[in-house]
Automatic annotation (TrEMBL):
PROSITE patterns: WRKY. It is found in: Nucleus. One of its GO terms (cellular component) is nucleus. Keywords: DNA-binding, Nucleus, Transcription, Transcription regulation. It comes from Populus alba x Populus x berolinensis. The lineage of its organism: Eukaryota, Viridiplantae, Streptophyta, Embryophyta, Tracheophyta. This is WRKY transcription factor 72. PANTHER family: WRKY TRANSCRIPTION FACTOR 36-RELATED (PTHR31429), WRKY TRANSCRIPTION FACTOR 72-RELATED (PTHR31429:SF24). Residues 202-268 form the WRKY domain.
Amino acid sequence: MSSSGAAAIEERAVQFGLTSREDSGSSQEAKKEEVIESAKSETGDVREENHRLKMMLERIEKDYQSLQLRFFDILQQETSSKQSTDSAPSHDETEESNELVSLCLGRSPSEPKKEDKSTNSAKSRENEELKANLTLGLDSKILTSTETVSNPSPAESVEEPKEEAGETWPPSKVIPKRNGDHDEAAQQSQAKRARVCVRVRCETPTMIDGCQWRKYGQKISKGNPCPRAYYRCTVAPLCPVRKQVQRCAEDTSILITTYEGTHNHPLPVSATAMASTTSAAASMLLSGSSTSQEGLGSHINATSARTELNGLSFSLHDHLRAKQIYFPNSSSPAFPTITLDLTTSPSTSTTPFGRFSSSFSSTSRYPSTSLNFSSTEPNSLPPIWGNGLHNYGTRSYNHQQLYQSFMEKNHQAAASQQVLTDTLTKAIASDPSFRTVIATAISSMIGGGGSANANNRNQRAGYQNCFGQNLNFGETMTTSAFSINSLSQNGKGCASSCFNGLSSSTSQKGSSQLQPALPFSVFNSASMPNNDNEEHKS
DNA sequence: CGTTTTTGACCTGCGC
DNA sequence: GCGCAGGTCAAAAACG
């Protein structure tokens, strides 16, 4: 910092033509002194800022270490308690891990009635976990396999259990049809229902996301000769989560998987990767739709804005284009849909980091948002989403260079994790609503989750300060996950749970958790060029 | 024999 | 009201 200040002085001196010692005029001398004085004061300011930043960095490191210690303590508690009381029947994921993570699509996880009868010990332990701030805003919890999820927040306890199932899936199905008592809830549910569409190149019939699915229907949809398969989550009997799998008509190697609903049960760790991804995406979508539907979306719709952040370029595309790209086979999406395009993008984006596009259709009833994480490199997949092969280090990503100043250790094994976190970084930096969601998550994690639902703009400044802390989402959200290669669903399906692979690299190596975290300081308001006003103006 | 998949029928929402 | 399309149900078949 101080060196940069000296450089600034020199630069200014050059600007004023003061580098020559032959200037001898008194007025020029005065000017020179004036400039030097101002430069000195500027240097002082820079030093002050440098000192503040150092203090902030120290505090962040302390917080990070304390969080890590608490996390490890909880892990040890769980393992020890499991060893002492482990007599429960083994679940089919016992091969993987005893930890289950419940993730919710940005909403309160709904619980079946029977799970309200969870034991007091489970609740007490859960309270411990809540106190340990392991609950993200995305409702990620680490639980033992023998535990069931109880309502973790007062807001959830207020909810009627009868309404819970209907909140996450069409109430007309979960709740008996023709039941007028639930019409209002149905409307709310419909308004809040979000779909996360994942496009990935996959030759197998379906991609493995860690969950257990049962096919309950198949239909030929209009405009696509490839049938659309309907799957239902069978991890829990009452889980409302469903997914649709369909191949792209234009490129049958592309598998389009649409997730809908919220898991109301603990997830196998192998499923948390996809769940966390879809959770974040859906949360972003829901958060964005809540504002866009009030008129803000029209602004975004009309724009093809591009912002740059530290060399990262993000662009917003209009919906027509996005629709052509992401919804070639269907009419306007009936529900708010966010698309994670993890395929090779035929369009040449100016950013080497893929494309993030958020768009809202004027024809669709609900907004549609697209996240394109595709590589511009032909026939390449992000190493985190592939055919089950984690090609760490086989492909170079330019964004890693951007982080070299921040990441002292740039191991190849951490490359995929960087991809994930970079993806999140881009998404957060590009979309204020996503920032809000993530900020809420962090806020709940740091501040004890007391105000998890408060995502208004007044608190955004505080949240952005939270971003300045060294929190590694890739590790936090998928901690203790590992590869799901052992979870092959009858030998078919893509082992595309990319995030498991990367998280396995972190979980298996405990020391990796001590790696420098992502520079979330880029989200500080000072360095955030893409603030709300700019987006809303455009 | 239990679970999963298949597939035709049925239901619902929407546009005309 | 009718037709269409998407989504779901449920019985039968297939599978392990």
